[in-house]
Write a structure and sequence with these properties.
Layout (H helix, E strand, L loop, with lengths): L1 H10 L1 H27 L1 H11 L4 H24 L3 H24 L21 H19 L5 H8 L4 H17 L14
Length: about 190
Amino acid sequence: MSSGIIAFLVSGPLPVAAVVIRVVVGAILLVAGTAKIRAGESSFFKVVLAYDLLPTFFARWLARLLPLAEIGVGGLLILGLLAIPAAFAGMLLLAAFTGATALALAQGKQIPCGCFGQSESVRPMRWTILLRNLVLIVGLLAVVAAARNLAVDDLIAGLGATPQWLAGLGVASALALSVRSVPVPKRQHAVSIS
């Protein structure tokens, strides 16, 4: 009986749900990475330091590289390139975020989550972030379970063209570099005249 349920899910609603989940999680990661870059490296660096999990040197590198990883993985998920490896990479990112958040909450830290790059968030971190991340991880498991879910990987494999990993690497690199090169306007602060 259970094999019948699995066969129904894999051939029925699961592939459609996997495409939706893949695109939604990809968009979340893409927007989060872009927001971190647009907020500025120093802003996100402050958030990473506030977690107090890494030495300053590694925190600085994480603040530089994490947004690029989010953009790359998000772009791959949206496009369906290297969908399964991208889903695993997304799960790894989300698991790391969940672990860091759980530690900070368990230690009673009142810091912003930094999900979208702000060092000063409107609301402090909450336990609901853990639930959200766990739901996204389970969603990415569905992407892996559906394996062939209307991904560009299928088209590339069918054409016998460029190896999938090369196409995926090219797209992820182009996305990360294009967002990294977007000029960020300087924020003007109000000046009080006394």
